[in-house]
Amino acid sequence: MENSFNTEMESRRSSRDAVLLSEPLATEATHILREITIPTKDEAKRILSIITQSYQDIPSDKWLYDGEPEPERCSLLYFFGPQYDDTIDLHGKSSASSSQAGCEIWTSSDLNGEIQSVMAYKLPHKVYEAQGIRHVYAERLWEDLPEDKVNWLRDESGDAFDELRATLDFKPEDSVEVQFLFTDPSSRSKGHGAKLIEKMKEISERNGLPFWLSAHNDGARNFYEVKGGLKRGSTVELPFGHGKSSDMTAFTYNPDQLKS
Q1: Sign of torsion over alpha carbons 96, 200, 180, 171
Q2: Residues 164, 251: contact at Cβ < 8 Å?
Q3: 5, 141 in Cβ contact below 8 A?
Q4: Which residues, other chains included, contact 258 with Cβ-Cβ below 8 Å and sequence gap of 6+?
Q5: What is the rounded distance in angstroms from the CA atom of residue 134 to the CA atom of residue 5?
Q6: DSSP notation for 31-65
Q7: Is the pTM of this model over 0.90?
Q8: CB 138 within 8 A of CB 5
Q9: Which H or E run includes 249?
Q10: From the centroid of its chain, how far is CA 25?
């Protein structure tokens, strides 16, 4: 079961990497951008709160986790690692084997230091330390989800993401997948998400790596195309639950040196 779960979850949000230089704190007007490796407990709580609220904007995730708080929590910890688990002592021996989150994380905060937006991505060919305990959260999620939702993860979800990746004009395994960019609902349209997209472009340019992401609703599509300046790609249907479905659209960015 664990291997099946790992395959499907990795097909939804890839886990490959190339090493990037660490970024200093960047302050721009009303936005403070930070790269987070090991969050404080307050930061972890805030980030998970933003993500949980934003899941409501993704039809398939809303359906998958509706009424399933523990699987939802485990799905987040599967990607982020034990640093975000308030049941584990971050300074104790239980976390010593994982000094790094399960993905790259950037946040945008207001001038009071309150995190308003979070962006997570994985780099091609990189192995993250937090992957070592992923099986713990994978097993919990797999056991707690109802059978129809387990089947959906194993079948429809993985197939749809594979179909979307196949439409990209570069090799997905040699690119960066932005797994998500979420902003607190009360802080949207204030530039936090746009600043994180700018940062993602800088990372892409500096490392010569294209990046891509998927959008699941019209608001996100408009944001990535108009405010983010990303290239709109193909749209595929993502079925879920009792004949319902939603559309999933790819957006891409190629650094200048790869556009020739």
Answers
A1: negative
A2: no
A3: yes
A4: 170, 208, 210
A5: 10
A6: EEEEEESS--HHHHHHHHHHHHHHGGGSHHHHHHH
A7: no
A8: yes
A9: strand 244-253
A10: 21
In terms of DSSP bridges, do strands 104-109 and 211-215 run parallel, antiparallel, or are they unpaired? unpaired
Length of the chain: 260
Tokens of 232: 């709109």
Question: One digit per residue, pLDDT tens: the chain, 260 residues?
Answer: 444 444 444 444 433 232 233 333 444 567 899 998 777 778 888 988 898 888 778 888 888 888 888 888 887 777 777 667 766 544 443 443 444 567 889 999 999 999 999 999 989 988 877 666 777 777 888 888 888 888 888 788 888 999 999 999 999 999 999 988 999 999 998 999 999 999 999 999 998 999 999 999 999 999 999 999 999 999 999 888 667 888 999 999 999 765 65
**What's the DSSP call for residue 98?**
-
Give the span between the Cα atoms of 253 and 210, in whole angstroms.
6
